[in-house]
Amino acid sequence: MSITQRQLATELGVSQMAVSFALNDKPGVNAETRQRILDAATAAGYRPNAAARATRSGSTRNVELILGLHEGVSRIPTGLLEGVEQALTLHDLHLSLSRLPDEKLVEDGFLPRVVREVAADGLLINYTHFFPTELLALIRRHRIPAVWLNAPVEEGCVRPDDHAAGRMAAEHLLELGHRDPALFFVSAPEHHSGEHRRLGFEEAVAAAGGTPRVTVEASRPYREIRRDLATDERLAYTQRWLARADRPTAVVGYSHAESTMLLIAAARLGLRVPEDLSIVSIADEITPFLGTPLTTVVLPWAAIGRTAVELLCQHFKRRPKRPSASAIQIRPELELGATTGPPGSAAPPA
């Protein structure tokens, strides 16, 4: 059992107030006594009583990250977690994590109980799609400080500007001289980013006088397509599309998965990248694949994580009745790799 402040005070022959001041780095105790108290506390293995501190301050200094149980609905990019951690450290906050089933999330009173039992001041909700719609109303009704991450929610949400991502990818290819670039989906995306990227892409191509080409190759939902290495159906769909006589000179991959499939399929078909086919990826970071760094519209996950924590801290200070009326969208950045260039003169495969 950890030694208490009272025991430390008795052992050192000082007041409990002096011990408290020294341990909490407050004025009111001279430097020599402060150091003596700190040395004794370290030697005795003193640990602050978090529960007592929370009772006194009304704050646990803890934020709970809420995840769903279904596959793919709570992906945590590394940059997002890094950004959250950076901002939490700046505010002397800590992070804990809960994975919760839908049926529990929508029980009236469950989330307030979670906040109490995990001793959290507020929630970061990383439940990006397919979440129960009743959850929004519950959070609002109980006035739980919460910020959504990359969800199709307007109030109290921070996400990438996916419309800008689609537009930036198209504009880069248009500037290189490609007249009718394509946007490629292996299958219809279930996340809102697919629609937003498509709209940005189409607007950019149409504004340049081109004809937007959007391809969704598979009719089945993405989660139903086999993705193991031995029988990756994504590659078969991608190669079939690139083998067509009317393939474009440039293509934007909806995500890193599409872009890597495009690179592999191009290699199998004998297409040179970027001479025969330019490829732009929209992904978490620029990465080399098959020895080739993909030109990438990089999603700003670290900035999203930091912004989400800052927004949550505003809730702590104001406790507003309603969160901000529109989502905060963070603009991505284009990073050039080796997969884009002016259109070549090679003929499409027969």
From TrEMBL:
Gene3D superfamilies: 3.40.50.2300, lambda repressor-like DNA-binding domains. Residues 323-350 are annotated as: Disordered. InterPro entries: HTH_LacI, LacI/GalR-like_sensor, Lambda_DNA-bd_dom_sf, Peripla_BP_I. GO terms for molecular function: DNA-binding transcription factor activity; transcription cis-regulatory region binding. SUPFAM superfamilies: lambda repressor-like DNA-binding domains (SSF47413), Periplasmic binding protein-like I (SSF53822). This is Putative LacI family transcriptional regulator. PANTHER family: LACI-RELATED TRANSCRIPTIONAL REPRESSOR, LACTOSE OPERON REPRESSOR. Residues 3-57 form the HTH lacI-type domain. The lineage of its organism: Bacteria, Pseudomonadati, Planctomycetota, Phycisphaerae, Phycisphaerales. It comes from Phycisphaera mikurensis (strain NBRC 102666 / KCTC 22515 / FYK2301M01).
